[in-house]
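ingest -> validate -> predict -> emit
validate: passed (alphabet ok, no gaps, 286 aa)
predict: started
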Amino acid sequence: MPNKPEPKKSQARPRISVADIRARKGGVPLVCLTAYTTPMAQRLDSHVDLLLVGDSLAMVVYGMKTTVGVTLETMINHGAAVMRGAQRACVIVDLPYGSYEAGAELAYASAARVMKETGAQGVKLEGGVEMAGTVRHLVGHGIPVLGHVGLLPQKVTDKSGYRIQGKDDVGWKRVLADAEAIAGADAFAIVIEGTVEPLARQITETVAVPTIGIGASPACDGQILVTDDVLGVFSDFTPSFVKRYAELGPDIERAARAYAEDVRKRRFPGPEHCFPLPSPRPKSKA
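emit:
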């Protein structure tokens, strides 16, 4: 009898690398979302190209008013959690406020800890012309960097500071120069946040690396949103550029309300949730 062909073994897809992200310039748009926990990373992993462990967790997870209160240790803990859940997506971790601005050596020490203790593929930092030397230093020492220009949340002290960038000639030239400087420093991609659409479009057409928009332009090489905004879980405020794809917040409240009612009326737990003694009951040893 002829030998039957052996069944093909299922193989996990290789993890998307920063080189893969960079190669997507001008191609199929990059799909990016935030993640802060293992279960969420597991849910998102097969649908996205990049998961960002964003310092937005300061507000979304910890209830802070801005992102500046989160620590490097917190980012590392959440980065490690996401890496445990993501098998395919490229995972990038934000460097938090105060962990990199003072110079290239501080930035390297912080970024090296992130890379070593989480296993992530790279780090993200905010800033333009003034941060180009730091980006170049990190990349030169083997740490991939995702840039971030336009609206910089780490420089915002309250909600009134979330202003759209590039509305006048001075702002336009500044954001464009920032993007060109970060691309020139060899960042593998650049997030453009809260920037007028024509400027984000021009930046995308100008720089050689992919741009990832958030409140920017459909012309960007990819898009990112905070997952809790997308799912309707975070409700303190909703930026105008967010599209909600679900309203899980009310569902969570309904589930909690139903649970509370069942407990108070002794409908939960039921017999199916309890552990009865086996029949016949085993005799105790003398």
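The longest strand covers residues 145-150.
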